[in-house]
Target: (2Fe-2S)-binding protein
Amino acid sequence: MTDTREITLTVNGTEHTIDVEPRQLLVHAIREELDLTGTHIGCDTGNCGACTVLKDGEPIKSCLMFATQADGSELMTVEGMEDLPEAGEDLHPLQEGFREEHGLQCGYCTPGMLMSGKALLDENPDPSEEEIREAISGNLCRCTGYQNIVRSIEYAAEELEAGEIAAADGGVVTDADGSTITPAEMTDADGEFDCGVENCCGGPMTDRDHDSIAGGESE
Ligand code: FES
Ligand code: FES
Model:
């Protein structure tokens, strides 16, 4: 009979109690026991960063830790990004950034990049290019190249800052001609909030690689 241990993990805000083998890696518990396959496995040896998740707010490589070592902790995976308050009704600004700045091709590294980017922006909302490169230095991308990934994170930093300024102004947005618009004035005929800026506040979006940035069907 296989020896198992009961552990409790709070993942993306939901508490799970699961049985795991003592030697089961955290990444395998996330993918196989919780069915959250947005967290990828690239090497299983701590080299690629594809398995990066946030553990109690810190980015960790989940292939370098046994699931039992994470007992009692709070985890965040890519699947949780769309539920964050700053995601509005759709994607988190970081996910939007990867879509807008073409920060992915095959998307394999993307969940890990998003988690490292999230940890960076939580700690440093206005990072320099050098600081972004340092933050993602443990995440390898075999196809996109890092320039677009850096731009994606810069995009998110700008979007998050703009959102904070708008919130501080009571949601008032300054239009291109300098006039201001209130949220009530940005409601369309169907009552949907739309600020009129492309890819902002529910504006037009493409579905390019949605699964990679949202952790949907990714395997
Ligand atoms: S799978 Fe964990 S670092 Fe590569
Ligand atoms: S590994 Fe393919 S997009 Fe990074």
About this structure: The radius of gyration is 19 Å. The chain has one domain: 5-169. Residues 4 and 22 are 6 Å apart (CA to CA). The chain has a mean pLDDT of 85.
